[in-house]
Design a protein that fits this description.
It contains five helices and ten strands. By secondary structure, it is of the alpha+beta class. The protein has a single domain, classed as 3-Layer(aba) Sandwich (Aminopeptidase), CATH 3.40.630.30. Strands 4, 5, 7, 8, 9 and 10 form a six-stranded mixed β-sheet that branches. A four-stranded antiparallel β-sheet has the order 1-2-3-6, with helices on both faces.
């Protein structure tokens, strides 16, 4: 009788490397197309493409790579499938006022609900000072994301709505620091 084979992880989460920046940006772009297109707000695939055009410039890519070197204020984590393709990412940072911010957390549509977001969020939270609050911003109409963040202790800040990139209605959520 042979021992039971241990299940293999379907994905891994690791620190983002400079080589991950471009494919992570491409993945984030595809997530925007899957998440933010909304006729009511005039958010079309074409509008998203226009918004993202700047994200792929050599200058912006290089800036993102340089931020990874500032380990005190910036981090990046990527989830990769077993082929090494990026399926999710998060870019937590501490702003100039010392406020901890999740930055971005995106997971490819076909990987949602499979633990990738959980692992990315856990890595972000572990990177932060747990005694301090953590902020994030979420599209007001992204109910799935808001429910996910609420499970992590984030609460919508009353009257925090603003418009991101001139179209996306956005709310701020805060997770209080641990006592």
């Amino acid at each position: 009788m042979s021992p039971e084979k241990e299940p293999q992880p379907r994905f891994i989460v690791e620190k983002m490397s400079p080589d991950d920046v471009e494919p992570a940006t491409e993945m984030r772009y595809k997530c925007w197309l899957d998440t933010y297109v909304n006729e009511e707000y005039g958010i079309t695939p074409e509008w998203i493409e226009t918004c993202f055009a700047r994200q792929f410039t050599p200058e912006v890519i290089e800036t993102r790579k340089q931020r990874l070197k500032d380990a005190e204020h910036h981090a990046g984590f990527v989830a990769k499938d077993l082929n090494g393709d990026i399926i999710g990412s998060t870019t937590p940072y501490i702003d100039e006022d010392g406020l901890q911010d999740v930055g971005s957390l995106y997971v490819k549509n076909e990987w949602r609900g499979k633990g990738v977001s959980y692992e990315l969020m856990q890595n972000a939270i572990d990177w932060f000072d747990k005694t301090q609050p953590i902020k994030l911003c979420v599209a007001s109409y992204n109910e799935r994301a808001k429910a996910f963040y609420q499970k992590w202790g984030f609460e919508i800040v009353p009257d925090s709505q603003y418009v991101h990139s001139d179209k996306i209605p956005t709310e701020i959520m805060i997770r209080k620091g641990d006592e």
